[in-house]
Amino acid sequence: MSRAVRFDRYGGIDVLHVADVDPPSPGPGQVQVQVKAAGINPGETSIREGLYAERWPATFPSGEGSDFAGVVGAVGDGVTAPAAGAEVIGWTDQRASHAEQVVVPAEQVVPKPPQVPWEVAGGLYVAGGTAVGVVTAIAPHEGDTVVVSGAAGGVGVLAVQLARRAGAVVIGVASAANADWLTGHGIRPVAYGDGLADRLQAAAPAGIDAWIDLYGGGYVDLAVSLGVPVERIVTIIDFAAAERTGARAVFGADTPGATALTQLAELIATGALDVPVRTFPLDQVQDAYAELEKRHTRGKIVLVT
Fold first, then answer.
1. What is the CATH number of the domain that holds 135?
2. Dihedral sign, CA of 99, 101, 107, 112?
3. Residue 284's domain spans which residues?
4. Is 54 domain-assigned?
């Protein structure tokens, strides 16, 4: 038998449990991966709570999870690479990565550089792909001033670094507790809360060229009010504001795949990108989501098997 996270109905974290399941076997063109680490993401909370039931309904009992990293245990017919024993980073579209084993098409895994820790690799696909997607959407230039709201979250820690690597001056909106981490990575920290507009204007007296909203809660409207061009405002969460203002919304389906994942892994391997991670054992999946749903964790939360 193998173990996997399951939920049998929509609800809060209390519906999550770890169940014994039959080990998945790879079919033609597929690989079976022994999961070492698997990231958790806010969208999974919304799915579990039934908020996306009309668009992406669950079939019960449902698994969950997209990100993973692990060791290839077996390959199906027609697979020439990767071979059994290879260390890989990947993703599944079947809500299945929060488990000891997962089966995916061979093209949905890429090699894991040995310098990338398992826990970092396991949470890379969703947050990393989204970070690449939002930074690409605003197309930062040398000398641009870019604001990132939610700058210390799972997507934020990567987005601020990628925008900075593109030559932008990056202002990170986050809690005061994250100021030192942001400063240490070349980001100008600005604390959220009352008076934020004044603090941003003081931090960017020449104006703001682009805005990446990773948090919601009115940041798109704030960006518009500060004169940021709407075509250079992007959000991953406030879709209503994007539709109302003309800002751009980036959905998970818009984010890059294997090529971006490989490039991000190589940057992490060389020390060019830093990803803070907090880990929980698979059996503590409820605790992991309780922490995620506080929306105050720096970087990624990852389940380890």
1. 3.40.50.720
2. positive
3. 2-124+275-304
4. yes
CA distances from 159 to 38, 50, 114, 156, 279 (A): 20, 28, 23, 5, 21
Distance CA 281, CA 265 (A): 23
DSSP per-residue letters across 222-267: HHHHTT--GGGEEESS-HHHHHHH--EE--GGGS--HHHHHHHHHH
CA 161 to chain centre: 14
What is the count of structural domains for the chain? 2
Domain membership of residue 148 (yes or no) is yes
pLDDT (tens digit, 9 = 90+) per residue, 3-32? 999 999 999 999 999 999 999 999 999 999
Residue written as token pair 């406030």: 238
pTM for the model stands at 0.95
pLDDT over 70 at 169, yes or no: yes
pLDDT of residue 94: 96
Q: Residue 17 carries which side chain, given as an amino acid letter? A: H
Whose structure tokens read 């941003």?
Answer: 200
